């Protein structure tokens, strides 16, 4: 391993965890993927997935990490002691800083200490930042996102086909072969559902 100081940077989301090593001089290693990292519904599984991503990132880089910075979905409402345990099991650095993915997303776009951020992925959340800290949060309900985060990817997947179906029902019938007898509506809804269900 090289002596250049380095850190493992992690983006742990509701569906996927991404990790890479960043050296002190800004050199980035390859991005590695693991499973979901939101600890709200299953903290042990999330911690294992994040630790797996960290181990893979370390193996893919010539740099030895001294610290880990993790931007984690759902972390605003709970501690995450399971992560330190799983990292120690893989002989990874114990110097871990865990922050909300809201702050990670916000500061990846700006250095301003005051502003707003919205994340729409598996779940959805919006927040206001003041003096570099979270001061107001809407949605982002973690384990309940399938039914409560109104703008989430899951909400779109669940509701878009029915919305498309009802919208298409009001369209004029331009071709008796393509659109008559309701042919277009269910097939378009099925196509929409199939597209939404594909991984990005």
Question: Could you describe the 3D structure shown?
Answer:
This protein has 200 residues and is of the alpha/beta class. The protein has two domains: 2-105, Nucleotidyltransferase, domain 5; 153-197, no CATH class. Helix content is 34%, strand content 28%. It has a five-stranded mixed β-sheet. Strands 6-7-8 form a three-stranded antiparallel β-sheet, with helices on one face. Strand 6 (115-120) and strand 7 form a beta hairpin. Helix 1 (43-59) packs across helix 2 (81-89) and helix 5 (153-169) packs antiparallel against helix 6. The protein is globular and about 40 Å long.
Task: Detail the topology: elements first, then pairings.
Layout: E1 2-12, E2 17-23, E3 32-34, H1 43-59, E4 63-72, H2 81-89, E5 96-100, H3 101-107, E6 115-120, E7 124-130, E8 133-139, H4 145-148, H5 153-169, H6 184-197
Helix pairs in contact: 1-2, 5-6
């Amino acid at each position: 391993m090289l002596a250049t100081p380095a850190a493992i940077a992690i983006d742990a989301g509701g569906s996927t965890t991404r990790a890479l090593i960043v050296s002190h001089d800004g050199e980035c290693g390859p991005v590695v993927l693991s499973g979901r990292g939101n600890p709200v519904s299953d903290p042990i599984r999330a911690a294992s997935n994040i630790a797996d991503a960290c181990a893979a990132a370390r193996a893919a880089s010539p740099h030895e990490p001294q610290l880990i910075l993790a931007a984690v979905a759902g972390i605003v409402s709970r501690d995450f002691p399971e992560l330190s345990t799983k990292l120690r099991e893989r002989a990874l650095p114990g110097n871990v800083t865990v922050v909300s993915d809201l702050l990670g997303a916000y500061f990846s776009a700006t250095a301003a200490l005051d502003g707003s951020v919205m994340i729409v992925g598996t779940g959805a959340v919006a927040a206001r930042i003041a003096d570099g800290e979270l001061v107001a949060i809407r949605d982002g309900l973690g384990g309940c996102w399938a039914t409560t985060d109104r703008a989430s990817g899951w909400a779109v997947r669940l509701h878009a086909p029915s919305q498309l179906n009802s919208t298409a029902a009001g369209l004029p019938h331009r071709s008796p072969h393509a659109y008559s007898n309701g042919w277009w509506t269910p097939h378009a809804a099925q196509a929409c559902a199939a597209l939404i269900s594909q991984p990005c």
